[in-house]
Structures are given as C-alpha cells and as structure tokens.
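Residues determine shape. Take a concrete instance:
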Amino acid sequence: MIYFQQLIFALTKKRCSIWPSSSSVWLNIRLLSTMPPSPESTSKRARLYRTSYTGPATAYFEIIQSGCHGRGKCLILFTTSSVYLFNSPEGTERLFCEHGVKNSRLNHVFYTRASWDNVNGLNGLILSLRKAGCAELHLHGAQAITKIVRGAEQVSDWSGPPLNVIEHCDCNDSHFEDDSIQVQYLPLVGGEECSEEKTDERRPTFAYFCRIKQKSPKLLLEKCVQLNVPVGPLLGRLQAGCDVQLDDGTTVRSEDVLEPAIPCPTFVVVECPRGKEPPKWSAIERLLRQDETLDAVVHLTDAQVYETDFYQRWMVEMDGKTCHVVLNEAVAPVRPHSEAIYRFSVQLNRVHSTIFPLLCTHDQTTVADTRSPLLLTTGRQSVVAVAAEPWLRFNLRPDPGSVYKCAPSFDRATILEPIDGQPLVVDELRRFQERLSGQIGDQIDQYPAVTFLGTSSASPVKTRNVSALLIHLDDSSTVLCDCGESTYSQAYLRYGADGIGPLLRSVKLIFISHMHGDHFFGLPTFLRHRFRAYQDCQLEYEPVFLVAPQNLLRILTMFESFSGSVQQLCKTILTHRLHPLTEQSQKHLHEAMLSLNVKRLEFVPVAHPMGAHGLVLTTVGNKTVVYSGDTRPCPALVSAGQGADLLIHEATMEDDLAQEAVDKKHSTISEAIAVGRAMGAGFTLLTHFSGRYNKLPLVDERHCSESIGLAFDFMRVSLAELAVLTEILPMLKLIFRDTYQNINMEVQSGISEMELDPVLNNDNDGNNNSSSSALCSGEAVANLSTNNDNQWREEKWTGSLDVGRTTSKVSKNQLKKMKKRERWLLSRQARRQEQAAKRKQRKVEARLRGEPSSAGGRSKRKLLKLSSMELSNCRQRVAVDMSFDDLMNERDLCKALNQLAQCYAVNRRARNPLQFHVVNFRGISRVNFDNIPGNSNWDVLLSEDDYEQLFGRWNVVYLTSESPNVVHELDESKVYIIGGLVDHNHLKGRCLELAEQRQVAHARLPIDEHVKMNARRVLSINHVFEILLRYTETKSWQVAIETVVPKRKLLQTQQHQLLPNNTAIRTSAETNNGHNTSSDD
C-alpha cells in the first residue's frame, strides 16, 4: 500500500490543493488510509495529466503609481508565479522594493498608450532587470519602443547578462497567454475628436482584457472513498480534470469528485486618449465566458477625457457590480509613493527643519494611513468608482472583488520612535539645536543656494535618486546641473503643486555634465513639464539654455518619436573636450550669462569618459560655485576653481575602494576632500554616492574637523549655512549609528586582512607608504595641477593620482581574497580537529545528563523529534493567529510563514513541547503553506476556524506589547494567542485594537519587569513563542527572556544563563548566528 504521506507530498509538489473545506488536516489522512490500494506508482504517470488547470492560487493587482501630480500611471498584476507590469513611467523600478516585487519574476510589460509618460522609465527598468539576471523582457502594445532601448544602450554602462527585449505590437499579436493569465488586445478606434499629440496619431492604442486562468479545484476525498477510487495516480488524473476507469469497469467522472469550478476573475485596463473611443461593451461581453462577470475596470484615461459625457455613458453600460479604479491627476489624491523616502525625510527633518524640509506629501499622510479606499462621486449612481492610491490592492483570487489599501504607516511618531525613544539621542539633539540657534543670526543670505534632487550614482536606491541639483542664484534664476530619471518627480515632491510652476520657469540653464544615462534620462520629461508651466500661466515660452556634449542631441532625436521634439524648447551650448565652442554656442553662452546675471560661466573638461565637463559659476556678488560632475581628481578643475566658495564634488567610493574608483573613473571620499583642499575651496560638499551607502557614506574621522558636508536628496542649503553641515554630520552618525557601524566594521575587517599581507603595505621599492595617503594628499593634487591638461583627456587618461607608486596588476580586492583563501586552507585541518573535539565533548555531556545516544544509525536531529505534543508533559496551549493576510504584502507573508516554521522547529525539538495551534489559517498564507512539500507532516494543529470558536472567548489571552496587563504566570486553562503579523512596526497597536474590539483578554510578556532593552520590546512571532516555551521549562521569565531575545536588543550584555541541570539553552537566535527576523527591524 502506498503511504498517504507520499501522496500528499507528490500532490503538493505539483501545486495541487487536496484539502477539502474541513478545518482538520488529519481528516484527510484518515480518508486516504481507508481507500483501497493501487498497484500503480504515483511517480511520473500523474504528471501527464496536469494540463487542464494551470491558473494561480492567488492573484491581485496593486497600484504602483496613481497618476497624481508628479507621478505616472502604473499598476502591477501579482500571481503565484509571475508578475505583469502595465506601463513603466519614471521611477517604477525604484518603487518595486516598496511593493515586494521580485525583478526575476517580471517578463512582460503591457503599454496602454505609446506616450512618453508611459515609457520614460523603461531604461531604468531594463537596468535593474539586467542586474537581477533576467533573460528576456516582452513589451506589448508600444510600436517601435525598442528605439528608446537602442538609444540608451549607447550611453548606459549596462551591468549583468544581456537582456533580450522582444517587441509585440504587430497586427497578428492580438492575444497573449501563459500558464497564469490570458490577455486579449482591444484596439481603440478613432472618434470624432482629433488628437492633439501628433506623436501618437499613427500608433495603435490598446485596452487589455485580462483573465486569470482556472486553478486546480479541490479534490473531495470523501466522494473518492465512496466511489472506491484507490490511492495512486488515479487521484492525480481526477485532480487534473480527467475521467478515470476503475478495475471493475466503473467510470468515475472528475466533475463528481471535484468541487464546482469557480468562474475565472476578469478585469480590463484602458487608457483612452483624445480622438479615440473606449472598447464597445458588446466586444467585452463576447469575451466573457458563461457565469463570468467583469470584476474591475482600471481607467488610466486622462481627466479631460474621463469627465466627458460619452466616457461616463460607456462606464454606465457595464455591469453595476463592476468596480472602477481611476488613475488620473484630477481624481487621484497626492499621497506618498515611497515609504523609505518619506521616512528618511522625516528623520532628517528632526535634525534640522530648514536644511531638511518636509516633503509636500507630509500633510496627506493622516488620510493615507486609513485602510479604506477613497470612493468617488461620478454623477452616475450605478457606477462604483474608487480613486487610485499607492498600495491600493484589488483581490482577484481568493476573495475576488475586495478592495483595500495595504500601505505602510506614515505616522510621524512611529517613524521618529527610534530617535525619540532613546533619551541620550534626544538630549544630544536638543543641545545641538540650542547651539545652532545661538550661532546663526536672524538674517541669512538666501542666495546663492543649492537644492539636491538626486545624490546617487548609476542607479537609484531607496533614499537617493540619480544625479540632479539646483543652484539658485535669485528668486527667478536657477541652474539645473544634470537631470537624471525622475528629476521632475523629485522636484514636485520638494516644492509641491504651488511651487513647482515657479521653479520650472526660473530654470534658465540646464548643464548636462556628460553622456551617461543617469545624468540626462530625465531631461525630456523636465523640458515637457517646463513648457506646460508656461502654458498653464498663459505666458510666452522662454527657451532654456542647454549645455551638453554634442552627441546628446543625437540621443534625444532617437527619443523624439515618443517624447516629441524637445530640441525646439532649448538653445544649445554644445561642449567638446578637444574643440572650442562654436560661434552659435558662444552666442548662446553670452545670452545665458546675461539672463542669469553672472560674471563667469566656464565648462572645464574633467577626467571621466563620455565628454565629461565640470562647471565653474561666479555670481555678480563674487560667489563662486564649482560642480565637478563625474570625474577623477582633475588638476584642470582645481586650477579653474581656485578660491571657490563652494565645491560640489562627486565621492562615489569609500577610501578602501580606491582601485575600483580608478578603474571606473570616479573619486573616493578622501580624494574629493583633497581636491577641495588643493583648490582652496571654502567648503566641500560631497555627492554622487554609490548605492552601497543607502543612508550615510563612510567618512574617515580625520576629516571631521574639515569644512565638508554630505548631500542628501531634497536638502537645501545656502552658502551662509554651509558651516552647519559640518556639525550635522556627527549627529547623523549618532542617529544612524547601526547602519554606519555595519559599514565601518566591513571596512575594518578588510583593513585587518590587508595588514596581514606585507605585499599590500609595501610598494615596489620596499617603501611602507599608505595608499590612502598617496591618493588623498592635497599636496599630490597641487603638484599635479601644473601638468599639461592634455594628459587628463579621455584618450590619454591613466586613472591614477599616485605619486612615485606603481599600480599592481592584481587589485587589492583580489589580493585580499587570495590571502583569505590561503589562510582558510592552512587552518582547515585545525578547524576539523576542533570540531571533532567539540562533538566528543557534547556526547560526554549528553551521557552525563542521561540523554539517549545516537545509536542504531539515528541522528541527533531524529532523536530530538521523538517528543510529540501528544506525549508531552506540558499541556500549555499556544496559538498563532494568521488572520492578517490582508495587511501584509507578499514579502511579509513569506516572513510570517518563515517565523511560523521557526516556532515549529523549536517546539519539535523541545523535551516537552507546547500544544501548538495555528488558527484562522486560510487565504494566501494557507495556500503558500500547503504548496511547501513536507509541511503536511507537521506536528501542529492547523485550523481555518477562529480562536473563539475553538477555545471560547473567556479562555483566550491575546498577547500584545501595548497591553497594560502583564503575564506573571502561565495558566494551563488559558490559550495564549500570538498575532501572526509582520508589519515592521507600521501597524502599531493593531493586535491590541483587535482584542479590545472582540472583547477578549489581553496581556503582555513581563519584559520590562525582568530585563532592560535598548530597543522596542516588539518581538517576532518565533521569539514570543520561544519565550513561552522556555518559561515552561525553567519557570523563570528572566532566564527565558535573556536566552531568547537577541543580545543586541539588551541594554547591557547579559551573562549566559544556564538551566537547573547546568545545560545552556540553544536558542533560535544563536542557531541563526544572531540574525533576527523581528517585525520591528
């Protein structure tokens, strides 16, 4: 007879759900055990019939960008195995991590309209997909979109394997289908009105009818038993929807033993431009199958078309049960789209409110924290419309039709809790701010001033966008230096709806330092919005002066089919490394200087490829600002900027990566500071940091006394306030000390390895000269400043400032790896002997404690699993409540299941395990749990029922850290409930609120009464469970808490506690090398 455990493993491995509606797993096992045996095997034959049902168990779409002012229109469809993107406006790939999107699962992008606002983020998306190792990307609905990709290939430093980009916009491409979804193209035909955008006239525009494929229905094992179906491959065939014949000739139809099929969910995505008509309702009805209804329509249509009578009539024609989700600037409210940007901005504002102002979305966060969607009034009572917001989710399977927001919390007090919750930090901040208020007078010169819109290199990170900064000369004159992707969105976040128009009109000159894509991909969008800023005020357009390498115009021409002609919006000043400015460019330069009212405007060739130049600007008040762009330390720039008041210099790498900086033609932090010292600059402001430094780059302590500062996105500082930045740096190190210390420890470990190798500390002549002193010395830069500038040209660039030092053919990183590998090989024998001695010692200690040995070929792991809940002497019941699926994104759902697995692991290895229950276990988390092979063998009581139904309201105690009640002793008559929620502390007090609403008892663990913590006392699911388990073993809360809670959360290092039998407890934190998956991380 085939073991039914093997059958469960085989079926779950094929993503089948064999569980009936009953809440007990053991019922299915008993049913399988009563079935007659089958002589056939369950191995490969059942796979042949797994073709009828391929649909995903879960499916929903989520809004990425809502179409509000400053944002594009974008949503993403999540299924169990894949994700599908609709449109790729600027900043899309930067927001992926906010929504738990895995780049490796994205292979298809559907464009509703071939407009620049929908496609301008494609190049940034391709860059992130290549880094993720994706093989191909299919682009649907945008004809000739590969022109944008070909244009970007010439100016982008692509990393990762090649990505095969496939375009689908042919007359024959009217349908797409894979294992998860079916998509039907619905072309939009021309209407009475004419399109105003000539670039879109001849391109086809599509709406998309999407159907989620039918998933495998549940197999009713009770009916299989009644029909005498044997255990074996016949069950797999029935599960696949095939009829089978038994040995006695009886035919069993699959529909008799399967649950009734649920109609497939469907939705439509449409963007109707002016001059087009939306798809006819009769055409959509023909696509609907029997019993199917249209669940949702996502409207990406502009407000001017959406509010017309003919469009509203089209919406009324549809089924009244259809939900309409609307994305446009007139309907979608302005909300934060990135939790990381908002959080970092609030934390910086806590340090200095003027230099780090709050973003324009700050006033909207109170409304954004509500969980309910914003309903719209359409003027048609039969239409249910919802305004799109970031993180708005529409469920398609399971629970189709439910709409809710899964946005993180934007509560200011919660965000500032890591700062304000530490008295030492608060006192230091107070003293710092009092000291500043006494130093700075009331009258501060506002100009010149600098505002940073992007401070990252190559690609954006959570808290930093790619390069862009504004130099404000006065209220009506501004210079934009570089314009990376999403520069306009960053400017809108900084200045809001009221300030963005005046800012755009004040930009008189745009300086593009060189031809790398992260410095100009946002230029077409910025120019288009600047043109609209003049139109909105009915003013005559004033062309902006564009300073850029000559080849930039050729790349912009390749974008024109989507962006329109932007060259007519500007007067060009074309730079070249080897040739002087043309007569036309010199004329425009003179006009620009008159328009900006500046005394000097000079473009200096610097040591970086792609026609790189730096900028030197001197105002009429004799204030000089130098912007380096991307460069190695360059004597030509040092000479041109002598005596500058402010040097804005790139500092991509930390000092330990000096060789990498040479290879990539960038500067380290110490090199940038040395350039400022050689230039005699009054202040050096560092920017263009590598993505390694999400918050703070690593600055050597020896530079803290110098006039230097670090740039952050949205930071505004005038020349009169620059001295404040030097004092701000130590405060930022204190607030973000965990991140800063982690980076510092990595560098120090690398330095320690280098000190062990004499080759790394000595040059070829045997002199023990530090590489950092050679690279970072101001004298070296000053000495080289007299050399011929031609040696810094791209064609002759050597990439090094080392004086009297020959660069080794093997890099430092390679030498470190080689030495580390050698030391590891030499110590391998000693490590093995040490491990053998430890194993022998553990066996001796186990015999002294009377534990069974590993005789009979059984491992210690198997021996520890002999204690089941049924045989346990501990009858204390603990349950994990898994009813929070709607509040978690996909990544947090996986974390919750991982923490649940850790609870099971520690309980299964206990001598007397707790009585472990998992309640409210249904929905997405249950489906993901069932799809993992081996989970069906857990010694855990799983149930879909609520804890009140299982245990009774008065027998339940809900554990929550916010409760005023304290658990002093465990009561075996009570069931202690742990909330199965991973929220990163965004939903603070949710469990307490739930307990009070349901009128059940609640309490917290006595953590404050026994230990002192230097962090929040919110713990992960597995840590709370293990504390309860250890208390049942030791009857001591202090021992249990100190043993389980990670040492980094304790205020003082606690001594390792021992059990009464002098055996140390091995906790999950120790097993995981101190890694903590706590929800408050």
Notes: Residues 828-848 form the longest helix (21 residues).
